[in-house]
Amino acid sequence: MIDTDGYMRFERVDSVRGTERGVLAELHGEQLRVDVVRADVVRFKISRGGVFDDSPTFAVCVDPLAEQVDFAVDFGPGAVRIGTVAMTVTLGLDPFRLDVHRPDGSAVIETATDANGRCWAYATLNDAFTFRRRCRKEDAIFGLGERTGRHNRNGRDFTLWNTDVLDPHAAREFVRGRAADDPRADRTSVEWDPYYIAVPFFYHQTYPTGPMAASFVDNGYRGDYDFTQPDTYRVQFGGGQYTEYVFAGPNVGDILASYTWLTGRMAPPPLWALGYHQCRWFNYTQDAVEALAARHRDLDIPCDALWFDIEHMDGYRVFTWDGSAFPDSAAMLSRLADLGFRVITIVDPGVKYEPGYWVFDQARERDVLCRTEGGDIYIGQVWPGDTTFPDFVTEEARTWWGELNAAHVQSGLAGIWNDMNEPATGSIPPYRMRFDRGRSSHERYHNQYALLMAMGTSAGLRQAMPEQRSFVLSRAGFAGIQRYAANWLGDNQSRWDHLWLSLPMSMGCGLSGQPFVGADIGGFQGNSNAELFLRWMQYGTLTPFCRNHSEIGNVDQYAWSWGEVVEELVRAAIRLRYRLMPYLYASFLHAAETGAPIQRPLVFDYQYDPTVRDIDDQYLLGPDFLVAPVTTRGQTARHVYLPGGRWYDWHSGDAVSGGQFVLVPTPMDRIPLYARGGAVIPMWPEAPPSTDYHPTAVELHLFVPDGDGVHRTFLQEDDGLTIAAQGGAMYRTTFELIRAGSSVTLRAEVSGRGFPEFARREFRLFVHGATPDVTVDGQLMTATEDYVVIPNAGTGFTAGFELGSCS
């Protein structure tokens, strides 16, 4: 970590005056703005050279001060206080300090002091800055995007600098000085830092009562977060201005909603993007790819997408095909589409430096490439050899890149895969690469490069195909990446510890605003094996992004690669994902509307249960489906924590009381899965070959809660491909499950005007936890097999039953 003890502290405020949104203070020749953003969100900004940078990054996508907020300012003799209904901000004058408290007096943030009582509200040295805050060693820390180690970040330090982890050149500076047996000297360890995605946003949960506060530093420079001290945490950035948003909470869901209001939320994805995806870095040919697709269909293994890694290109030149391996790519793509397969190709930012290569010639003609301080085109060493990089900071470069991607997709592709966008520059250090036509240092935009690349890609796709939902996958990212792209967790290892690592990594991304995330199933680097692959499949098919991917030279890692027994179990795991597609899609839409994660740590839904703080080997998929993966070899049983309420074993149907650990067998055909009491989980009645499917029936699995209350969920049916649903071309059925004593009522209300492909004619209601007589709109229904048929083609209804002795 950077030693900040010698930084120059700001210790006294010279003057303060009120503003329309808070106060403006003069201190140490600079200005401090305290702006009330919302009743529970405040922004601090400190100028440099007396000037504020009002656009420090591309992360914030709204006017933070657009909403009207009631607040009052009290100018006291030693402090100025800005109060709202949710918080009080205290600006200490001499000494200078910044503190925020809730109305009950609990701390949101409190400035730390040293042994001599000097405050660490803000200090600076040579453009870098730091601050320190109070904490307790028992407190919990969450967030910061894609991090290694435990989900609770307390006790560790982190560097926010997007890094091509497996490149020894990029990682060298983070290994230097570490002992050979230090896990952080090993780029493949589950403690390695830094990683691909840097999000300077974290939560601080106060022990023992559990309220949350959060901090977002809107700064793209290299950041360092140090949570290793027992009573203080430290934050340092290597340049730029100090701009921080502080969220008073105290509820984690409200904080994430406010953060994603600032930085944006994912757009509703195309439904096929939620399916199972097959990818491999391999020397495929056109015939081999078509045979791969046919085998999935012949073996009845659902699959929606095939991916092409770098070997499909002509000499690693982006936006090209290897004509010898793919003599008629357009015809191939058409035939794959007829089988229900979408195709995505990799597009790295690196453009081969080669006069005569049309992409390079265009880039040089339009002057959209990164340059050095002296004006040369910056050249790195990546897959094509001498490699140039688009200057995505400029709108001209993003527009040009968007046009290239749009043309590429319109040739028959379904989406774009952005890799190597940290940016990775190989054996040539990146620091001489400058941005904004050479006006800005590399350090300012390095962490934002992937965000800007995705911004240009997504804009190009939307402009060319405005009615279609687009799909972009990115390796690297920054705050706001969720607006434009999904993320995968980069080049992982085919090891059990990396299977486990993907849980806290994914949950950390979800709490950092990126809900569409997943790991390479089976592991990317190294050889997988039957048990590891099966267990990863059973887990990975229940994550937001579901892609099987592996490195060239590895053993085969297809669904059928380990014989018929494993194949059948893998098929069952994939089929479960497809049958859960209505529930999964609703979870995605909820994320798009609220910012809530899809792969949810238990602390998101059970924040005030102290047991869940350090649980990071199980999670909720959406709000109601608990998943407890097998993460070690030969594991025949595992403990699962069930939070308060009633839970239903997905496999047996048995009801289990929450608020306890249960020991659950883990035979090779399953991992522990539970449904929450009160849930109504919609499912397809079968697993189709792909998501090109509009069923005539949808199952509703109702799980009787253990006590009185109201539980809400929804089902949305639309075409799954276009944005027509935003204009009402859909049916959204909102379910309200009410238990009052022994009476259970399910009310369904419908919005939307429908869509041409709509085919549903009935619901099939399965009641778990009782075998009651069910009425629908006052009429007693006769059960068929183990469910009740509710004729329905997009209208509301009310179903009810009495539990009697069955509850």
Keywords for this entry:
9-stranded mixed beta sheet, 807 residues, 9-stranded parallel beta sheet, single chain, 51 strands
- Biggest sheet: strands, sense, closure? 9 strands, mixed
For this structure, the quaternary state is single chain
The amount of beta strand, in percent, is: 25-35%
Cα separation of the termini: 57 Å
Main structural class: alpha+beta
**Helix percent band:** 10-25%
Mean pLDDT over all positions: 97
Number of strands: 51
Number of helices: 13
What does this structure look like?
The protein contains 13 helices and 51 strands. It is of the alpha+beta class and 807 residues long. The N and C termini lie far apart (57 Å). The model has no long low-confidence stretch (mean pLDDT 97). Helix 9 (496-511) links the parallel strand 29 and strand 30 (517-518). Helix 10 (530-540) packs parallel to helix 11. It is globular, with a radius of gyration of 27 Å. Strands 2, 3, 4, 5, 13, 15, 16, 19 and 28 form a nine-stranded mixed sheet that branches. Strands 30-29-27-26-22-21-20-32-31 form a nine-stranded parallel sheet.
Quick summary of this structure?
With 807 residues, this protein is of the alpha+beta class. It is 19% helix and 29% strand. The termini are far apart.
Strand and helix map with partners:
Blueprint: E1 8-9, E2 15-18, E3 22-27, E4 30-38, E5 41-46, E6 72-75, E7 79-83, E8 88-93, E9 96-101, E10 107-109, E11 123-125, E12 128-134, E13 140-145, E14 157-160, H1 168-175, E15 197-205, E16 212-217, E17 223-226, E18 232-237, E19 242-247, H2 252-263, E20 277-280, H3 286-298, E21 305-308, H4 329-338, E22 342-347, E23 351-352, H5 358-366, E24 380-382, E25 385-388, H6 395-410, E26 415-418, H7 442-445, H8 449-464, E27 472-474, E28 477-478, E29 486-488, H9 496-511, E30 517-518, E31 520-521, H10 530-540, E32 547-548, H11 563-579, H12 581-594, E33 599-600, H13 602-605, E34 619-621, E35 625-627, E36 637-642, E37 646-649, E38 655-657, E39 660-665, E40 673-676, E41 680-683, E42 697-703, E43 709-717, E44 731-740, E45 743-751, E46 762-768, E47 775-776, E48 779-780, E49 783-784, E50 787-791, E51 797-802
Parallel strand pairs: 15-28, 20-21, 20-32, 21-22, 22-26, 26-27, 27-29, 29-30, 31-32, 42-46
Antiparallel strand pairs: 1-11, 2-3, 3-4, 4-5, 5-19, 6-7, 7-8, 8-9, 9-10, 11-12, 12-18, 13-15, 14-17, 15-16, 16-19, 17-18, 23-25, 24-25, 33-34, 34-35, 35-40, 36-39, 37-38, 37-40, 41-42, 43-44, 44-45, 45-51, 46-50, 47-48, 47-51, 49-50
Helix pairs in contact: 6-8, 10-11
